[in-house]
Amino acid sequence: MTKTSSGVRIRADAALLAGLGRFGALAILIVVGALASDVFLSGRNISNIVTNASVIIILGVGQTIAIITNGPDLSAGSVLTICAVIATLMVKQLGIFFPIAILAALALGMFLGFLNGYMIARIGIPSFISTYGLQWAVFGFAYVILKGYVIYDFDTSFRFIGNGYLFGTIPMPIVVMLLVVTGGMFMLRRTVVGRELYAVGANRVAARMSGVDTEKKIIQAFILSGALAALAGIVLVARINAVQADIGKNYVLPVIAAVFMGGTSPTGGRGTLLGTVIGALIITVVQNGMNLLAVDSVWRDAVIGVLIILTVLIDITMQKRLARIQAA
To answer: Which value, in Å, is the radius of gyration of the alpha carbons in the chain?
Structure first.
């Protein structure tokens, strides 16, 4: 076996080991939850866990694509908010047919994603700064539009995407999430676009020299992130039957945490959507278990923070060990 083939096998083995480790961590959390609460493994609670994770996962797909290509999209929570506000205003105040309102929200999300991508790729503003700045600007618009009011009590047809059931059994947020994850996996692993997104994140200079339009790929990645943030906003407000100006504020950090816990590299070029799904489930299981045990919210945040640090440290340690093995 040549050194190159050995290196490929080592990388594959390391990726498999890391994936099994995340599955193992999720399994341990489920066992602990089952031992701590009699209702944890009930059908209703399991359905609630996956349904609650669906919004994080939908956002996480877009966030994973952005991070793989260039860097985190810190504006995702605000894009979720403003798109949900616009859609619900169109439905509730203007009486516009809800599919049109949803399409308008998706278009707005794509436009905001384009702005992020353009500022990063064409102007050269670092993603952290551009997306963080857009976050505050968009949240400001949401506050101005709503003026402190809460919009609630939507039509049943609009709420179906958040509260309905496919075939009377599968919650619609889970259906939407599965479609998004499946489509995202296919794009990243089976299309030229996906391979180019990975290439841009791994080495932008090398990708450009190989003929990849790196600026275009970065813009495309953030357009996808914006569109999925808009979709997550529609699902969320349809589920809770209300929207306010800060509805997406508490989603950005858990989503980024899920992506990093799932093994996506903070420096780009490496990551999987399956890992993001597992990361989101880990976070949601922890939150659900502590809710059932009535643990104070301060401790919930602390536990999730520790989990994030541990998973990233483990990932970094494995990558360093892999690099030493390859160099040997």
So the answer is: 20
Query: Shortest CA distance to 62 belongs to which of 241, 294, 297, 248?
Result: 248
Query: Could you tell me how far CA 11 lies from the centroid of its own chain?
Result: 25
Contact between 203 and 48 (Cβ < 8 Å): no
Q: 321 pLDDT exceeds 80?
A: no
Element (H or E) spanning 243, and its range? strand 242-243
Report how far residue 254's alpha carbon sits from residue 256's, in angstroms, rounded to the nearest whole number.
6
- pLDDT tens column, 118-164: 999 999 898 889 999 999 999 999 999 988 888 888 888 888 999 98
Residue 78 burial (C-beta neighbours within 10 Å; 0-12, 13-18, 19+):
buried
**Residue 90: CA count within 13 A, CB half-sphere:** 18
Q: Are 199 and 212 in contact (CB under 8 A)?
A: yes
Quote the pLDDT of residue 327: 66
User: Which phi-psi region, left, alpha or beta, contains residue 153 (left: φ > 0; alpha: ψ -120 to 50)?
Assistant: left
296, pLDDT greater than 60:
yes
For 172-214, write each residue's pLDDT tens digit.
999 999 999 999 999 999 999 999 999 998 889 999 999 899 9
Lookup result for tokens 């504006």:
75
**Tokens read off for 121:** 């790729």
DSSP codes of every residue in 262-290: TT--TTSS---HHHHHHHHHHHHHHHHHH
What is the distance between the alpha carbons of residues 78 and 139, in angstroms, rounded to a whole number? 5
Give CA 19 to chain center in angstroms: 18
Q: What is the pTM of this model?
A: 0.90
